[in-house]
Design goal:
Elements lengths: L6 E5 L4 H12 L3 E6 L7 H9 L4 E5 L6 H11 L3 E4 L6 H6 L1 H21 L4 E7 L22 H18 L4 E7 L1 E3 L16 H9 L6 E4 L11 E2 L1 E3 H11 L9 E6 L5 E2 H12 L5 E4 L14 H7 L7 H9 L5
Parallel strand pairs: 1-2, 1-4, 2-3, 4-5, 5-6, 6-11, 7-10, 8-13
Antiparallel strand pairs: 9-12
Helix pairs in contact: 1-8, 3-5, 5-6, 9-11
The protein binds nicotinamide-adenine-dinucleotide.
Length: 333
Amino acid sequence: MNKEDLKVLVTGCAGFLGGSMSYELLKNNFKVIGVDNFINSDRKNISLIENTYKDKFNFFEADISKNNEALNSIFSEFKPNLIMHFAALKSVPESIKKPKLYLDNNIEGTKNILHSMHKFECKNIIYSSSAAVYSDENIQPVNENSFLMAKSPYAESKIQSEREIINAASSNKIKAIILRYFNPICSHKDNVIHDNLNNGSLMNEIIKTALGINKQLLINGNDYETKDGTCERDFIHVQDLLNAHIESLCLFKKINDFIILNVGTGSSISILELINAFEYFNKININYSFSKKRDGDIIKSFTDTNKIYKHINWSAKYKLEEMVKDSWLPFSK
Ligand code: NAD
């Protein structure tokens, strides 16, 4: 697939990662069609992208889990030849409270995309999966063959969506790249699209405490069997994550059905290490204390990076210092 021939349909393009990816694709001269129903976003990112890249970007408001007709008409009009499927609800705690909403929204959305791809002969998809699919009983670091087990309806929706995609690819209908993201933080290097601070991620909570919006940061659990008692994660700079998507495009020429790749740095960073680095490199004190463990949290999670390096020669560029500085940069002024 040549870059100039690519018309990319980005689902969830008003959100944090789908918006950042749309911006990066447009910056790299791809044509982008975006779809979102604003269930977890607003028009801000869309306006920003439209104002920067008017001629190469088309946006449609539609619920992809329910509105097949709208999806089909987008496919019919634009004939996308690549789907980047970001649209999903993503909060683990909310998914425990509202399992049906998460399963319906995320799995039906994926099925509908696959259905439209089949109907309009679109062959290629990159799917935004998650490290949440892995059982925390795996020996760390996990690799793509590690054992899967959902600890939350969110994780279940990701596992089942992967299955739908793999089934479609295995019956030779499509080619699929499934990217299992570890923990994206920061934003696009152009500093344009940011996560919604109310989205509940750890970095958002750190920033809200640094800004004084929250008086105190509560860390869920400090007696896990980890290096300092707090959970450990593989934090990855969003710009690295976006680059991994672009680099993975070459795989469509090489694979017959599907490939699964973990996208992380390969380093395990504890919650306390992240906070301490944020304080040290940004010269800010974060008022934090510990609260009880949270249902659904995975204790330790980081990736083996061999497979992604072998297949697309990609490894993460940004280290912890740059990640905590870039996370704070948009708010520091
Ligand atoms: P986000 O909530 O910022 O963006 C998701 C977007 O999808 C939102 O704009 C939302 O309105 C839209 N959406 C949800 N359901 C939809 C539907 N039925 N129809 C149309 N639009 C719909 O989330 P994000 O952080 O950008 O995450 C994007 C993807 O990456 C998700 O699939 C998520 O599971 C995956 N992921 C995210 C992380 C992370 O930490 N951000 C980690 C691993 C995987």
